[in-house]
Amino acid sequence: MPKLMRRQIAIIVLAVLGAVLLVYLLLPSPVEVRTARVGYAPLQVIVEEEGETRVKNRFTISSPVAATIRRIHLEAGDRVRQGQPLVFLEGPRASILDVRARDEAAAGAQAAAARLEQAREQTRAAQASAKLAATELARTQALFESGAVSRQDLDEARTAASQADADLEAVRARVTTARAELEAARATLRSVSEGQGDTGVQDILRSPVTGRVLAVHQRNEGFVNAGEPLVDVGDIDRLEVWTDVLSQDAVGIRPGTRVLFVRWGGDATLEGVVDRIEPQGTTVVSALGVEEQRVQVIADIASPKHAWTGLGSGYRVLSRFVIWEHDRVLQAPAGALFRVQDGWAAFRVENGRAVRKRVMTGQRSGLAVQVLDGLGHGDVVIVHPDDSIKEGIRVSPQED
């Protein structure tokens, strides 16, 4: 090959290389983007709200009639036994014994007798309901073992049986309280009829349950009116959590729904189960001045007592209602998805470029979204893409 021709070829090659280098230098530099990988992981859909603990069965001991009480020496937190004397009643001192007083005492005795009879009727009804719930639980257990019903049906039957037993226990306690009120009312009637309104102890109000003193409303000796609250008692080992939930979130919560209690003061996460959802919502004005419809959701603490020692009534907890969960779900970061027309899309990184993909989504948690179609395991997607990210643009991934 002649020397001149070789020189011309070299010049042409250098010119082509120079043009390629110039084009490369004029190309826009890749945009740095944050990326994450699509993959399989557990997913929970959670409704999170603040709740408050309450004693499951709280009883307020009040005076059945106008009377004088002796000083109450109990303190909040003291243990009491069922039937233990709490309050000693005496007849009103220096009272005028007239026909009106006798009529009022007689009316009080009749009302107390009616309340006792009503409580007994409620006990009979509660016993029937508890027996029916136990029978239904046994039937559902048998059907579950044969595969005819789901575990959710079995859990609902167990919840119903537990609630029926709790209702029966509460009604029996009301019978004890009503019986004590009737005895006190009859003692007052005898005192008024015999003109002995100030001759010492007329009756004793006793604890309807074994538990603790929750509050003492009236401590000093003195006159109290009929129905005036004196002492609150309850079983502190049986707590439930009341949580205000937005009505649109409460629709997805059912009796038996799993609940996680956190930020209650201990290190462990407590397990719970929803007992009931109140059917009536209330309007609440938020801190931002927005009206919200909220519903009370009541859940029982299922964790053993030793796991939440120190938790009392009126304590704050954070309730996390698990609406949906699965151990292995293909998911992408929620920040990687953006709206397109009537669906969702994401930018997938392919060979250093951003490629927009339509994505079909399923369940959503706070930070992750279930991917049903459009992305696969191991795909790299851009997180929080801004307006500078376009189809086919060169990107420099910075994976989280």
Short description:
With 400 residues, the chain is of the alpha+beta class. The chain has four helices and 22 strands.
Report on the architecture of this protein.
- By secondary structure, the protein is of the alpha+beta class.
- It folds into 3 domains: 31-41 and 328-399, Beta Barrel (conserved putative lor/sdh protein from methanococcus maripaludis s2 fold); 46-53 and 237-326, Efflux pump adaptor protein, beta barrel domain (Elongation Factor Tu (Ef-tu), domain 3); 57-234, RNA polymerase II/Efflux pump adaptor protein, barrel-sandwich hybrid domain (OB fold (Dihydrolipoamide Acetyltransferase, E2P), Beta Barrel).
- Helix content is 30%, strand content 38%.
- It contains 4 helices and 22 strands.
- It has a 6-stranded antiparallel barrel.
- The longest helix has 47 residues, at 99-145.
- It is elongated, with a radius of gyration of 36 Å.
- The two termini are 58 Å apart.
